[in-house]
Amino acid sequence: GFCTNLLLLQTPEHILAQTNNKTAIVCELKKEHTGVYWYRWSQERQTFEFLIFFNTLGKAVYGANISQDKFSVRGTSSLTSYSLHISHLNASDNGTYYCSVSQSFQLFLGTGTQLVDVLPLPLKTTQAPVSKKPVGYITKSKAASKKGPCSPLIWIPLAAGVLLLLLSLVPVAHRLHRLRRRLWLRIHRQ
To answer: What is the DSSP letter of 31?
Structure first.
C-alpha cells in the first residue's frame, strides 16, 4: 500500500472557503515525474476520486464527470511546483485533496490539503453588528478520520499490486504444468 509522502509537500494544510469563491493548493515536488495527478477523498461519501492529470508538457486529462471550468492546474517552468485551482466552490467540494506522482509502478501521495468547509455566503441584514468575539472551529484531524494504520487510500494500490502479482504467476503456473506433464509422460513411457 501507500501512505502520504514528504517528497510531495502540499500547502496549505487546511482551507476554509466560502460558496462561489475560489482557492488554490500548491504541490512542491522533490521527485522525478512525467506529470502530477490530483485526487479528492470525501469522508462523507467514502470515495477516492480522480480529478485531473497534468503532464510536463502542459496537457490536462480530466476524470469522469469532472468540470474543466471548476478545476485547472498550473505548473512552474522548473516543473517542481504545481497548483490546483478550484473555482465556484460549493459544499460538494469538501474533502481532502492529494497531489500524486507515479514512479516505478508506485504511487506517491502528497501530504494532503483538507478543504474543511465551504461556508455559505453571509446574509445581508440590517441588524446591529454582532460583537467580534473569536469563534473556535473544531476540525477532525487527518489522523482521526483514518481507519486503521493507513488511510483508506491504501486499498487501491494494494489491490493493483495483488492483481499484478497474480498475473505474473500465470506464466510460472503454465510452465510448471508443462514440466509436470513431461515428467508424467517420461515415467509412463518407461
So the answer is: S
Residue 44, pLDDT > 80, answer yes
Check if the beta carbon of residue 53 is closer than 8 Å to that of residue 178. Answer: no
Q: 3-state SS string over 104-150? A: CCEEEECCCEEEEEEECCCCCCCCCCCCCCCCCCCCCCHHHHCCCCC
Dihedral over Cα of 27, 28, 33, 34: its sign: positive
Plot region of 180 (φ>0 → left; ψ -120 to 50 → alpha; else → beta): alpha
Question: Which residues touch 154 (CB under 8 Å, ≥6 apart)?
Answer: 1, 2, 3
Residue 166 pLDDT grade (very low, low, confident, very high; cuts 50, 70, 90): confident
Q: What is the pLDDT of residue 104?
A: 76
Q: Does domain 8-117 have CATH number 2.60.40.10?
A: yes
pTM assigned to the model = 0.60
| Side chain identity, residue 89 | L
Q: What is the mean pLDDT of residues 158-175?
A: 73
Nine cell digits for residue 16: 476554509
State whether residue 76 is helix, strand or coil. Answer: coil
